[in-house]
Design a protein that fits this description.
With about 425 residues, this protein is mainly β. It is about 5% helix and about 50% strand. Strand 20 (about 355-365) and strand 21 (about 370-380) form a beta hairpin.
């Protein structure tokens, strides 16, 4: 929180220096999600007695300004949520200064939302933090990416872009903790609520515990290619201690992506090697093995405001035989090759004021699934109403979606923008 306050003060001081006429905007939004089935891990009973995954009023303010060779941006949320103990919170989502030092060098410093890669809700080389709790509880898709404190340097040389992003400390994914959504406890072997959620050991804020992201991008003909690198930690706490706690093991990653038009299709593909530094030979069952991750997908316009897309995503575990041999009797076992298929279809209606969308995951090997549907209606230029559903299921309680199978919910959002 101290870092957020410092960034806010620096940005506000920069506002007065850069411009006297900043652009101000924002919105006020009501979010309500309702669980559609009984969840015994959360103590839910009949519909009237069920807890809400999300019940909040959120206000956001943005501030933007530019100077000759610099610009600033500030985005802050104030949310009051009945499902949290603190009720109200301030979320400083972005507060950065961007300086155009030369025609070939930019520096962007501060709190910012970062993303790269070609996937549609699947990720291989994008190891910036994700907010999975927001993703499953009805917030706008933009909230899947939480902010991070970064120094980003971009160099533009002869059609090639080199970008380095660094943070002095590790920002993990925001995963459900058993309050809004029940979760799987690997030490108890079952789905639990917050009172039985596993303890997660944080990564210490030391100089050697920071994160470094790298990207080299360019084009060739109609193709866009990118190479990536990362040094930090696994984004979710996949390591386990002998005393019954979860932690974030160290991780190196390197990979690439390609996006290219193929006839009337837009095709994309990514691959990445994940090197588990704390268990490079795969002999420790308490630390995740190194992996190869990747996906390939296509997107196509079907005409009359229809678009569709599909992707195949896979994770290949290295040294799987050592992993399987080291597991204790009765422990859950993941396949050597885990694959997921996704599909999306979108339709615009009524002069493009209505957006109907459906996105589905099918975990082929994990035997789980997730369906995200929504209908958004732009009532006026300022008012937007969205209703949707986040439906989740699976046969195994320890998989990505299987652990949330009793957390399916429907939601509605009403947003007034200014």
């Amino acid at each position: 929180m101290r870092t957020s306050v410092i960034l806010l003060v620096i940005t506000c001081v920069w506002v007065t220096r850069v411009t006297s006429q900043p652009i101000i905007g924002g919105f006020v939004e009501i979010n309500q999600a309702i669980r559609v089935e009984k969840n015994s891990a959360l103590g839910d009973g009949t519909l009237s007695a069920r807890s809400y995954p999300r019940s909040e009023v959120r206000a956001q303010m943005t501030l933007r300004g530019t100077g000759e060779r610099e610009e600033f941006f500030l985005r802050a949320d104030l949310a009051s949520d009945a499902t949290t103990a603190t009720r109200s919170m301030v979320d400083l989502r972005e507060a950065y200064i961007k300086m155009h030092l030369t025609d070939w060098l930019d520096i962007k410093l501060g709190r910012q939302v970062a993303t790269w890669g070609t996937g549609d809700f699947v990720f291989a080389n994008d190891l910036f933090a994700k907010d999975w709790e927001a993703f499953f509880t009805g917030l706008d898709d933009a909230y899947l990416k939480p902010p991070q404190d970064l120094l980003r340097t971009s160099v533009y040389l002869s059609g090639v872009t080199i970008e380095i992003a660094a943070s002095p400390y590790f920002t993990p994914d925001n995963i459900p903790d058993g309050r809004r959504l029940s979760i799987y406890n690997p030490f108890l072997g079952r789905v639990v609520g917050s009172s039985e959620a596993p303890t997660i050991l944080p990564v210490g804020k030391k100089l050697n515990n920071g994160e470094i992201f790298g990207r080299l991008a360019g084009t060739h003909g109609g193709a866009e290619w990118t190479l990536y690198g990362y040094r930090g930690f696994w984004p979710t706490p996949q390591g386990m201690t002998v005393s019954g706690e979860l932690f974030y093991p160290r991780l190196w990653s390197a990979g690439g992506s390609l996006q290219v038009p193929v006839g009337s299709f837009l095709a994309h593909a990514e691959a990445a090697a994940y090197v588990s530094q704390d268990d490079t030979d795969g002999r420790n069952p308490l630390i995740p093995n190194s992996q190869i991750r990747g996906f390939a997908g296509v997107e196509k316009s079907l005409g009359i405001d229809w678009t569709a897309g599909a992707q195949y995503y896979a994770e290949f575990m290295l040294d799987h035989d050592r992993y399987a041999t080291g597991l204790p009797a009765g422990a859950p076992t993941f396949d050597e090759l885990r694959s997921t298929v996704t599909g999306r279809i979108t339709k615009l209606l009524h002069n493009q004021t209505i957006i109907v969308s459906a996105f589905a995951y099918w975990g082929v090997s994990d035997e789980d699934w997730h369906l995200r549907t929504s209908v958004g209606y732009k009532i006026t230029d300022a008012i937007n109403w969205t209703v949707g559903a986040s439906l989740i299921g699976g046969n195994r309680p320890y998989t990505m979606f299987g652990q949330f199978r009793d957390n399916s919910n429907v939601y509605t959002r009403v947003r007034y923008s200014f």
